[in-house]
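#help-structures
NK: newbie question, is this the right format to request a structure? protein is ATP-binding cassette domain-containing protein
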Amino acid sequence: MAPIIKIEDLEKTYENGFQALKGVDLDIEEGEVLALLGPNGAGKTTLISIICGLAKATKGKVTVGGHDISHDFRKAREMIGLVPQEMSIEIFERVQANVRHSRGLFGKPRNDEYIERVLKDLTLWDKKDNRIRELSGGMKRRVMIAKALSHEPRILFLDEPTAGVDVELRKEMWDVMTELKKSGVTIILTTHYIEEAEAMADRVGVISKGELLLVEETDTLMKSLGKKMLEIELDEPIDALPEALAARGVALGEGGATLEYYYDTAAEKTGITDLLAEVRKAGLTMSDLSTRQSSLEDIFVDLVAQQKEKDEETAA
């Protein structure tokens, strides 16, 4: 089955010479949730802007549902709903009328039954006659999603959808995304919240300095790149780490009361048995042992750090 979005060798260079995207290749499957992670300026919003026709690529090709965005923009854009990072709604308009108007902008015939269903799904129906300025920040974001869904798109782009909302509202937004996925909508999500990607995404893409470092299924990524940390609690804190332990990659925890050792769970040998023998040999007494699986945030930080080292080596 052909991907619903296909991106080939996409590049974007601005007039000042800044290269925002560097040869991005990416296939997005229908019905999946793809999370794009990356620091500010990584190229996430530029990539979305090009796919949605808000910016023009310097090089490369993008097709949406088989439609080339350069030659058949209208057909491609009809398939896309976009919720931008910045609030962009008429605050003096009423909710239902505003969402209905957005549908009309795409040339769709009036369908009050569909608009009602969208508003109910987003728990906005009881606010349908309210002016948008009367709504909370979280409700305004829901209105933006309703507007993006008003023309019945098959693809929804959410650019930092939970930025600036509290934890409770963020979880409510996750519930909204879950329901959208169940309805078959393909969702591309950019976020700074690692837990959001970990909770919502089928696949995760990491982008940094315009390069797509990897795209992988979330679970597979956690298993293949994730590490575990063995934490050894000591009976008595120590001031300095014995050289033999430091040579094995052991770090001294804050306060000197713990030893921290990262190991690859997929490796043939973890080195834990030898490590524990080395701890006893150093005259240290252990009071407890525990392990912790590395998070998606740990993986993301490692990948960006690796790219930084690579860039520094190239520059040298």
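mod (FA): yep, format's fine, and the tokens are attached above. The mean pLDDT is 87.
NK: thank you!
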